[in-house]
């Protein structure tokens, strides 16, 4: 008889922990350098149900940091590539794919399409990011939000804190400012780095998909952000009381 593929996981978190992950439903929005790794870590932990959202295709400039990005996948939809990987990791995963950029006007519909235990916000544009956080807060769904991984290179400076404790992050500053207008100033767990951003690595864009600029990136930093985000979710789910299931 084949060994249980989660045997090592079960040794660490016990049978009850595995069951909690198998009963969980997670929404991952954004499958770039952060979200693609986060989704994979969640799948490898044994999470039973996942909805993944991204409308982008692989660009050759994604190869330096994104899990689905290879020379052979340039031009292909990220959501399809990531979905294939996740199903190959866990064929029993209940997976829903949404192949679109999640615009603010669609947030309510997507969040009401399922019962989510946790949301991973891996969007890198301020407007839809803030809309997702607000929609999650209104529904009292726990959310972990990834802030800016660009312009950073020191892995030791990456951490998870409440949004009110974020610093040295331009994206976090913009998000805090927008949320304050909605009278939200705390209660959102954020992955961020307090390393000062390398301003020399900034490049302006054409402003498509709400993005006006981006910083240079190195291979491992977005992956670490994804790791921290997934760990936040997994540890929370494993520690939940039996009464919640």
UniProtKB/TrEMBL annotation:
THIF-type NAD/FAD binding fold domain location: 12-240
Keywords associated with the record: Membrane, Transmembrane, Transmembrane helix
Alphabetical list of Gene3D superfamilies matching this protein: NAD(P)-binding Rossmann-like Domain
CDD domains from the UniProt entry: YgdL_like (cd00755)
The UniProt record lists the keyword Cell membrane: no
Signal peptide: none
TM region positions: 24-43
Listed name of the protein: tRNA threonylcarbamoyladenosine dehydratase
